Amino acid sequence: MSSVRLALRVLRVDGRTRTSAILTGLGVAVATALVLLLVGLPFATEARGERSMWQEPSYSSGEDGPATLLLTSSEDYADGSKVERVDVAPLTDPRAIDLPPGIDRLPGPGETLLSPELARLVDGTPGSQLGDRFGEVVGVLGEDALQYPDQLVALVGHTPQTITPGALRQDGFAVGGAEQDPLLQLLAGVGVVVLLVPSLVLVASAARLTAARRERRLAALRLAGATPRQVVEMVAAETAIAAVGGAAIGFAVSPVLHSLAAHVPWNGGTWQPGDFTLPLAVSLPITVAMPVLVLLAAVLALRRVVSTPLGAAGSHARKPLHWWRLLALPLAGLAFTLAVTADEPTMMTVLGGLLLIVASAALVGPWVTSAVGGIFVRIWRRPAMLLAGRRLRDDPRGAYRASAGVVLAVFTGSMALTLLPTFESMAGSSSPYRDSVLYVPGLDAAEARQIAERADADLARYGQRERTAQVGEVYLSRGPDSGESAMVLDCASAGTLLRLDMDGACAGQPGVYAEYPMNLNGVHVSAIWNEPGPALAADTPVRPIRATDADVSSVPVIDPAVLPSGFEPQAVTVAVAATEANREVVRTALAGAAGGVQVESREMRLADQQTQLEDLRRVTVIGLIAAGALSGCSAAIATAGSVMDRRRTFGALLAAGTPVRVLARALRTEAAMPAMVATVGAGAVGVLVGMGLFSLVDDGSVVLSPWILAPVVLGVGVALLAASVCRPALNRVRAEPLADE
């Protein structure tokens, strides 16, 4: 009889083996689908980037050949949502310019193409609050031109004379060559490590439901004359039926998982359905590798049956674990430290170090479990504790298997909750302007005057009282390679526009306003860094001010009245103070006057940071829920499997009169206590790894919040819930005739 036919017969007649195979298949399906999704995330960002590359100018385009257009891009905001604005001016016949997918024509001067969502907003909003920023709407952009379905994009047409001077010469729109999002690459790699392992633990736990019965069956076959190869083939066939079927199911349902993931926002928007489509050259090897890993694990587990069938049949005692297992964790930690502290760390080396730390738990965890069992054996006061201790000492690997997924989930949660509060503490903006101020920085004096005049005219046309202020940027120095920047603004306007407390400083004659004492004797003012300029009057008064916020980058303010005669700043910022009621109107006036030059505000900088933080929070919550669910299921199945493995032992104890409550307490103790001890250690290691990962981003210190204890508490809770299946499993043992074994 062939190995496959024998495996099918076993599955047909043995209900417990059939249940184990079904759960194994489901575990492989989950692992396959998760890995396909996580590996597909970087490819999805690449697909996004391919569609939206035309929205950004290329700094190398137009250098080697004739330019066909001028292009500049900027960010705008409408009702709190980001708008991507692209301004274009053709330098040749517009019909000769190749257009990106999703754009059917190039807008002429004063015309604009809008994305469908932005067109809907423009139609439902007064022109003074949005539509007047762009011009006459003459068409709609297609989905192939949008980064995500609801992206707000405006393609605005100009002539070469009316487009902003900062526009870049291009030999066409950028198409192709998009790169994957490095942050999502890193998160996907970490996700593969921290979610694949619980999935494989779930598979192993399901396979262990019939481990003892399978060992005895295979040992009997070996004693009856079966060769080691025949035994291996039997197990491989039995496992392959479940693993291959599970991998096929995972591959088949992965599109459903991808469609669900398409609704999870990232970087401001959701995804198009086809973004997660993986190339067959990537998806097929992954699908094949999953059952191969399961088969390899099943074959390696047969060493005892193949080499010593009598030992397997008689369940002889296993060898004790050696102390050298404890070296695995510090060695893995050293490898991870070397990876993150390298001069040029790569993602593969960092993920490799992280994988070593995760793998070291498989060596350290059983030793810790055995140590806990030894403590129970020495200090036991009740029979339940003695029974639990003996089990933990006799089979620490099997006992730890139930808590392996929980340990990894706690490790992942502690690592994530170490990074998130630290990233949140870094959020902020050093912009000196108040939240209500909209401004256009980096202009030359002539361009600033033109923008200010146009914006003031539009503000007057919209019936607004606000007017622009022109803030000069100069340098104060005493000699070469020294000096500091300063802002040229009168005292009253500085109090309105800047995050500075000017109370009392505006009384008396104009002067210089600073947070610290300044001696102006020999100080020169220049329009360009490290260039000579006229000297300030030594008797210019210096008045004290203070910043209203701790994160403000405060610079001295110079009243224009005290500047040397004939001196004018070359770099100017045009700023307008808005109110909550007229903010969108002021933004429309300033954006329309700027004609594609970036309009900034402090809230815009904070909004981008909050979007990234929300993405990280969302990914963390989803990952922790998935890891927690997988680890909880694997712990429950492994705990139930440990009861089934020792069915003969428990049957004998029950037949000898041992109370069920004593056995149930012993099972709960052996299932929960090692997990509770291991989760504390996993939480500490997770914090240290989180600190190491943060060092890749910033050299600052890590913020430790009380939330880092939450994964440990939840891990203990999951371990206790998983231990609660002991009593039902024990009742199942009581209900089945012992002769079935």
Automatic annotation (TrEMBL):
One of its GO terms (cellular component) is plasma membrane. It is found in: Cell membrane. InterPro entries: ABC3_permease_C (IPR003838). Signal peptide: none annotated. Pfam families: FtsX. It is a multi-pass membrane protein. It comes from the Bacteria. Residues 192-307 form the ABC3 transporter permease C-terminal domain. This is Permease. It comes from Prauserella muralis.
